[in-house]
């Protein structure tokens, strides 16, 4: 809604949010990164006339919006906002980030505040230093904001599960937003992260349930994985999963949305949506009745690790 810039108009962005709310969706996520602030502005405007206690809002810290000569534009965003990004995981930066996010949102509070992208996926070789700064700066700041009642819950928004386990060893958090790593294509969080979250009473929000498009597209040329062209082996695996779904009369997209929610640690799944038509499509997919035989066949074929009533199949 922000990263696509003018490809989605203000009216269309408003319609997406209001259509989602009318359909029963009550959790909305954003971040300063998305559209260099445009997502927060658009989301805030769309939510502003709704009863504030009727929805939950999350945003993120770790990237400050600065003038373009003080930072770098994020190449994945197509907005024209006059800002750039500067990483800052210090204690004071969290306070500044929250204040400016609230200004852009035009709302009285953020319910869930997440430390954004302190993983290797984002920072590569610099991640150990980034993690140390965050664990001594941003994360204690989040704890203080929670204790002061400024926010209700805190956690991470990341693309790797390993950093979540490290944080569980150090900081008392409420939730993780994990993007793209617990899907029909990937289930490694089952081994350590998700059991730890259950044990520590930490909720998990799954972003990117379609793996950025691979699990939603039937055309090879349009299939992306982690926002890049999908490699052949993952495309081929997705087609094998699709074949099993079709044999049970189920749209693979429905299986992609519902699979993570079968785990007791997972509280929500948040696919990105560009239009009110996509909202209605996803709402319909969430209502599809998926037979247990489909999950059993995927598990038996070694395609998707089975998960029945919170216990892994053997």
Automatic annotation (TrEMBL):
One of its GO terms (molecular function) is oxidoreductase activity. Residues 3-300 form the NADP-dependent oxidoreductase domain. Pfam families: Aldo_ket_red. InterPro entries: AKR, NAD(P)_OxRdtase_dom_sf, NADP_OxRdtase_dom. GO terms for cellular component: cytosol. This is NADP-dependent oxidoreductase domain-containing protein. It comes from marine metagenome.
